[in-house]
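Why does residue order matter? Because the sequence determines the fold. Keep that principle in mind as you read this record.
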Amino acid sequence: MNKSVTKPIIIGLTGGIGSGKSTIAEIFTTLKIPVFNSDQEAKKLYSLPEVKQQIIKHFGNVYTEQNQLDKKALGSIVFNNDEKLQLLNSIIHPAVKTLFENWVTKNNQASILIKEAAILIESGAAKQVDKIIVVTAPKKERVKRVMQRDNVSEKEVIARMSKQLPEEELIAQADFIIKNDNQHLVIPQVLDIIKKL
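Structure:
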């Protein structure tokens, strides 16, 4: 009897800004489960000549003298303009999708793969995964975390939150939910999900 080739189960890991998905992703990494961080991969794309060319063409020169993307400058253009945000996404998302497909091929010996993405559902990337984990946390807690992490005002955090799907909508799409609310321990929740998979 020949051994059938098993494909990894691909899990989408998402949650609103400040929910703590990166913390959960680190737990998976510690457990030797490969994690693809869509946001980090997207950031790397901005330095590719072909992407940079597109960005400058549509958004002006939002790069520093050191050739780094000026996130604040680009953010101020797209965060208050849905059309520009969609345009930016149409440049970045297909490239991230290709990177992810290549990454899956490279890691196909793993039994579980995690795709971490802030806008997994909104970007259509949920079509690339088998199951979805949503990380949740109370709004007050999320605002506090982002204010500390990004050194921004409460108003800015709330404006960013308003651009994302409400937590209830994410939960409605979830196969698994991890409560990251400082009341529940997260590691047992992660281990429980792995057991169910």
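The CA atoms of residues 17 and 161 lie 7 Å apart.
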